[in-house]
Amino acid sequence: MSGLGPQRELEEAAALERRRRRELLRRGRIFNARIRTIGIDKDALDAQVKERKIQEAAEKAEHERFAHHMKKNDKLMCLLEERQKNEIRDLNRALTEFHKNFQGPETRREFDLNDPQALKKDRPARVSDDDPRCTISGMQKFVGEDLNHDQRMKFQKEQIREWSLQQQKDLKNALADQKLADDLYDKFRIELDRKIMEEQRKEEESRRAVCTATKNFNKIQVAELDHKNELEKAQKMKDDMYEITCLLRGDFLSENPDQAIGPGGVLVDRWKGMNQEQLMAIREFQKEQVLEKQRAREQERRRDAEWDRQRVQAARAQLLWERHQQRQDQVQRRDLDAVNAGLSQEQKAKNIYLKEEEYSNIPTEEFYAQFNTSTR
């Protein structure tokens, strides 16, 4: 990679020198009044296209060389990594074999602390129940942990069996006593129920006799009450007929008009209506009210018609004024459009004149440089 740097710099310097010479030749052709032509420089464009193709081919070749070197370097790195992995694997295998053959667990000083067979090799904590090593502070022997545990458990099971048999026998005796007591209680309850039923039967007979006597007494009372009600009903009917007769013959139901005349004038609570003369006077007054109301309605109709006529005239005048105002607005808008069109034409002419002045003041070299740039 270090050898490619100077060669690339030389190629770039040569390409720059060729571009500089072509630019000087092109300037000579453009600024020479004898050979200058109007339009584009086709030879210069062809030279630029050719130079561009050469440059692209050189760049492509450069990229291919660089890619070739990159592939070569990648293969080399893969081989080196594979070699390193094999070396590390061989080193780990050799280290494991060395540990296995020359550094076993039994060669360590603390192997007795981590020996898996230490409990099998060690002496038991208690040899017998009277072992002098089993002190109170050592806590190697507790209640129920003696060596004759099997014999003691067998004796305890036999003792528990005897206790169970005794409890079953006591339970049978208790059940027999309970059954005897239940039988005696059932006999007592049956005799008590018989006596209670006998007392209920006697009480039912006495209650039935009392009900019969009460029913007979109620029948007598009902008969007496019916006779009394019939007498009261007949007397009430007689009194009602007398009252109806008196009311029919009285001044209230007969509507006698003379009963409303009192010493101080008409009695309101006894007045039964007006006579024909009073009714005719009221009808005449009502007719006058109707005629007066018709005259008022006619006047109101005439006043509304006058108001409608004035409102129509005002609306017509307003409509004429609005039309006149619209015509004036249209005339003013046309005049304003004509003035704006004239101002627009003047502005466009002024802009064209300013652009022509600007182009006339540009130097010849700058003009051709802008022309060449635009053609490219």
Automatic annotation (TrEMBL):
* Tagged with keyword Hydrolase: no
* Compartment list: Cytoplasm, Cytoskeleton, Flagellum axoneme
Is Coiled coil found in the keyword set? yes
In this chain, the stretch annotated as Disordered covers 106-132
Q: What is its main location?
A: cytoplasm
InterPro entries assigned: RIB43A
Taken from the record, one Pfam family name reads RIB43A
Which keywords accompany this UniProt record? Cell projection, Cilium, Coiled coil, Cytoplasm, Cytoskeleton, Flagellum
Transmembrane spans? none
According to the record's subunit comment, the protein's assembly and interactions are: Microtubule inner protein component of sperm flagellar doublet microtubules.
* Sequence similarity: Belongs to the RIB43A family.
Quote the protein name from its UniProt record.
RIB43A domain with coiled-coils 2
